[in-house]
Amino acid sequence: MKNTIYYIGLLLLCIGAGSKIPADKTIAENERAIDSTFTGTCPYLFQSADTLAVFSWVRTVSESKAVLCYRVSKGNGFSKTILVPGSEKVKPHGENLPKVIVAPDGRVIAAWGVANPNPKNPYSGLIYYTSSADGGTTWTSPAPLSPDPNSIDQRYFDFEILPDRSVGVVWLDSRKNNPRDGSSLYFARFGKSNAFEGEKVIDETVCQCCRTDLFTDNTGGLHVAYRKILNDSIRDMVHIVSKDNGVSFSAPARISPDNWVISACPHTGPAIAQTSTGLSFVWYTMGSGKGVFYASSKDNGQTFTAKNAVGASTAGKHPQIQILKNGNQAIVWDEHTGEGSRIGLEIRTPAGKKLRTRYLPSKAGYATFPVIKLVGKDILVAYSGSGTAEDKDRVYFQRVAVE
User: Fold this and answer.
1) 22: buried, middle or exposed (CB in 10 Å: 19+, 13-18, 0-12)?
2) pLDDT value, residue 282
3) Cα separation of 174 and 223, whole Å?
4) Which long-range contacts link 339-345 to residues 24+ away (Cβ below 8 Å)?
5) Which CDD domains does UniProt cross-reference here (predicted)?
6) How far is the C-alpha of 250 from the C-alpha of 267, rounded, in Å?
7) What is the pLDDT of residue 73?
8) Are 107 and 136 in contact (CB under 8 A)?
9) Alpha-carbon Rg of the chain, whole angstroms?
């Protein structure tokens, strides 16, 4: 479960001691590149209930070739970089993020997006996946999430460990039963046959270009947050929940009445977490205010608090959220400025009260698409970054001490 707190011993050893770095310090003393030899992008962090952590990213091999790769930490060992075979056509995208996870039964599952131009849509893509039952030594043949030949556009997916300890996935799909704008939201689970099975539509008229978030709470509820197209023109965030392990889902409830009317692709999705007081949501909008916002729900998504801004700027996008060991919340986002882009970090109480806001120091003048996970009492923040706009990205990470 995404917000369950686990101690990951080896990451503490590999990353080095954390430090409370002042926001105005220009040199990131504890910033590291996960892959010092190659450039790359699209970091992703995953934790499972057996204290295993996965750090995956896309390595740039050449101008025309990239590959999904990862490292695994468990106990007192840390794997070498493992390349996912068959992923050489991966199309890196910070919202359609490639992912590597480990299921409770030990199977490694990797998924990534590829281009799928066709007469109906020259810009469409597919999500391919493969799995390994022996720790990454051998893999199944890569296959698209859905075997249906009518599924010609699959994107913006998310994995989660379900309440029954199986693996679930949601994604946006081109198949739909109405002429209205938008994609369908699909749900399926990973079976013993190493295939995603039982796919079904759980909503329609969904914004085609923003990431989804699939989340299991600590009582067994299964939640999804995503951007929906409402009244043909409004693109606001909604939430649905399943109380029966994904058999059925509630009707979509709007997290905030932003009323953002836009006929374009925002490319910035939501994130969910759970505190001792309820569910928390963060997202980006340009409706009724601009930037990253926060809201919460104490009744499992039936009602939501009024939104309030994250950070002090309207330039933030791509938020992620993590519950800390003391119960507080850490929110990260990227923020473009006139001189580049940077990663913001805000700490809030379990009830959502702001405690402090800062920016992570970085040698990368252009840092984007942060991801965040708990490491002991601290947090690990990874992101894509480069020194200048013309440089190629590398994947960086920092261990940040928080109170």
Assistant:
1) exposed
2) 98
3) 22
4) 339/365, 340/365, 340/366, 340/367, 340/388, 340/389, 341/365, 341/366, 341/367, 341/368, 342/367, 343/367, 343/370, 343/381, 343/383, 344/310, 344/311, 344/313, 344/316, 345/381, 345/400
5) Sialidase_non-viral
6) 25
7) 84
8) no
9) 20
Structure tokens at 26: 């220009």
By DSSP bridging, strand 53-62 and strand 40-47 are antiparallel
Tokens of 311: 């950070």
- Report the residue count for the chain: 403
Q: Which two tokens stand for residue 268?
A: 């910035």
Q: Which residues are CB-neighbours of 297 under 8 A, at least 6 positions away?
A: 239, 278, 279, 281, 303, 304, 305
pLDDT at 7: 31
Pairwise CA distance, residues 269 & 320, whole Å: 9
| Domains of the chain listed by start with CATH number | 9-400 (2.120.10.10)
Cα separations (Å) of 177 from 122, 154, 201, 204, 231?
A: 21, 16, 10, 8, 17
User: 245 — phi, psi (to 5°)?
Assistant: 65, 30
The single-letter code of the amino acid at 308 is N
Cβ neighbours of residue 371 closer than 8 Å, sequence gap 6 or more? 43, 44, 45, 320, 332, 381, 382, 383
Residue tagged 């597919």 (tokens): 126
Question: Encoding tokens for residue 111?
Answer: 């998924």
Give the integer Cα–Cα distance in Å for 214 and 224.
5
Burial 59-73 (b: 16+ CB within 10 A, else e): bbeeeeebbbbbbbb
pLDDT along the chain (403 residues), means of 10: 36 34 53 94 86 89 94 76 97 97 95 96 96 97 97 98 96 93 97 96 97 96 98 97 97 98 94 98 97 98 98 96 96 95 98 97 95 91 94 95 84
d(C-alpha 159, C-alpha 141), whole Å = 19
Whose tokens are 């204290």? That residue is 51
